[in-house]
Write a structure and sequence with these properties.
Elements (H helix, E strand, L loop, with lengths): L1 H11 L6 E4 L6 H11 L4 E3 L3 E2 L14 E2 L2 H9 L3 E7 L2 E6 H8 L4 E5 L2 H7 L7 E6 L3 H11 L4 H17 L8 E4 L3 H25 L1
Parallel strand pairs: 1-7, 1-8, 2-7, 3-4, 8-9
Antiparallel strand pairs: 3-6, 5-6
Helix pairs in contact: 6-7
The chain binds adenosine-5'-triphosphate and ligand LQESDW3C.
Length: 211
């Protein structure tokens, strides 16, 4: 009930439509969204999620994630601070209301990088984002990318590959996503992502120019 009320407040603010990027771990979501935010730094803002997983080398608290303990995360969830949350590969993840609000307050397009549980939960709110699925060319390519990234233990990698099969099936459900991008050649995929968002990008640019 409260979640719906809060979401309605978001919609009523009538800023640009948020964007949800989802798809299997290792498909290339962060790679693509980093390119997008580099090219359009005054157009997009990243919704910084909370997670209980440890930071990877190069990741920064408050920029990539808010790294918290299970106790802190659970307390936030119980307090109603999150729009959605999920358990993924042995860790908790969630989008706080503040994370989205911070971006929307700047009139930027808010990008959420979330798993399929997050997509299902966001669909129950009035956030009304554009849903984009980033898919790998195949499970074999995905495994190679995840192994080459060298961020996962063998156990975590196997969990992520298992989840990936479910995520790949989910993307085929009618109406699950507005756009599906198979991330094979990075520049091609990036072009498709940019095209899919061009209308929203131009809206924000226009608003920024007139203010
Ligand atoms: N088109 C591509 N061709 C080759 N390698 C790619 C391509 N896109 C991404 N990669 C590489 O694949 C790996 C996984 O990409 P990335 O970390 O962006 O995936 P992700 O979907 O954000 O994963 P996670 O959900 O686990 O954060 C990275 O090492 C990245 O450099
Ligand atoms: N439901 C949510 N999923 C999230 C959130 N933040 C990230 N994610 C997804 O988790 C997996 C793993 O991410 P990683 O950084 O550990 O590789 C990936 O699919 C992300 O999209 C969130 O707030 N909610």
């Amino acid at each position: 009930m409260y979640m719906r009320y809060f979401s309605r407040v978001f919609s009523a603010m009538a800023g640009p439509r948020p964007v949800v990027l989802s798809g299997p771990s290792g498909a290339g979501k962060s790679t693509l969204l980093k390119k997008l935010m580099k090219e359009y730094d005054s157009v997009f803002g990243f919704s910084v999620s909370h997670t209980t997983r440890n930071p990877r080398p190069g990741e920064e608290n408050g920029r990539d994630y808010h790294y918290v303990t299970r106790e802190v995360m659970q307390a936030g969830i119980d307090n109603g601070d999150f729009i959605e949350n999920a358990e993924f590969s042995g860790n908790m993840y969630g989008t706080s209301k503040a994370a989205v609000q911070d971006v929307q307050a700047k009139n930027l397009i808010c990008i959420l990088d979330i798993d399929m549980q997050g997509v299902r939960n966001i669909k129950r709110t009035d956030l009304n984002p554009i849903y984009i699925s980033i898919q790998p060319p195949s499970l074999e390519v995905l495994e190679k990318r995840l192994r080459d990234r060298k961020t996962e233990s063998e156990e975590s990698l196997q969990r992520r590959l298992h989840a990936a099969k479910v995520e790949m099936e989910f993307s085929k459900e009618p109406g699950a996503f507005d756009v599906i991008i198979v991330n094979d050649v990075l520049e091609d995929s990036y072009g498709q992502l940019r095209n899919a968002l061009l209308e929203e990008i131009n809206k924000v640019k226009k608003i920024n120019m007139s203010s």
